[in-house]
Amino acid sequence: MTDSSRPPLAVFDLDNTLADTAHRQRFLQRRPRDWDAFFAAAPQDPPIPQGVALARESAEECEVVYLTGRPERCRRDTLDWLAAHGLPEGRVYMRRNDDRRPARYTKLAILRRLARTRDIRVLVDDDELVCEDAERAGFTVVRARWTAPSPELKVAQEREGRT
């Protein structure tokens, strides 16, 4: 049963929804992929104006939370990045460091868990598979199509469970 006394949740992805990862894609084009460098470069991600504006607008009526495929070891950098770019405060849900399931599975599991006690107004994400699965599960979705799709990131999200 959801708690109707609390504001609904607006759930935002980070990479390529709020944070532009284009500058660090090069680390995924190598073999083997350089995951340490990929995540180490995340603090330099420029914010994506459309995503940031939508998060700020959503915070007027909703509690904003963040749902990312980034591993837990990136928490401090992620929290610092959100604060540095003036994003609304909110809980950050991250992947366990050893979790390699595809993003669509990890994110949908968390969405369902959140929905047991809270109304979820919207999920904003750039990953088409995450969006499709969330819609099939009954969630309202906004597809973050404001950056160019990255084939390397898609493989990382779906097959390697890395982000």
Textual characterization of the structure:
With 163 residues, the protein is an alpha/beta fold. 34% of the residues lie in helices and 16% in strands. It has helices at residues 35-40, 49-58, 75-84, 103-115, 128-136, 151-158, and strands at 9-12, 63-71, 92-95, 120-125, 141-143. Helix 5 (128-136) links the parallel strand 4 and strand 5. Helix 4 (103-115) runs parallel beside helix 5.
SSE layout and pairings?
Blueprint: E1 9-12, H1 35-40, H2 49-58, E2 63-71, H3 75-84, E3 92-95, H4 103-115, E4 120-125, H5 128-136, E5 141-143, H6 151-158
Parallel strand pairs: 1-2, 1-4, 2-3, 4-5
Distance between the termini: 31 Å
* Biggest beta sheet summary: 5 strands, parallel
What's the gyration radius in Å? 15 Å
Give the overall form. Answer: globular
The ordered string of helix (H) and strand (E) elements is: EHHEHEHEHEH
- Percentage of β-strand residues: 15-25%
Binned, the helix content reads 25-40%
Strand order of the largest sheet: 3-2-1-4-5
Low-confidence stretches: none
The mean pLDDT is: 91
**Helical segment count:** 6
The secondary-structure class comes to alpha/beta
Q: What's the total count of β strands?
A: 5
In short:
It is built from 6 helices and 5 strands. By secondary structure, it is an alpha/beta fold.
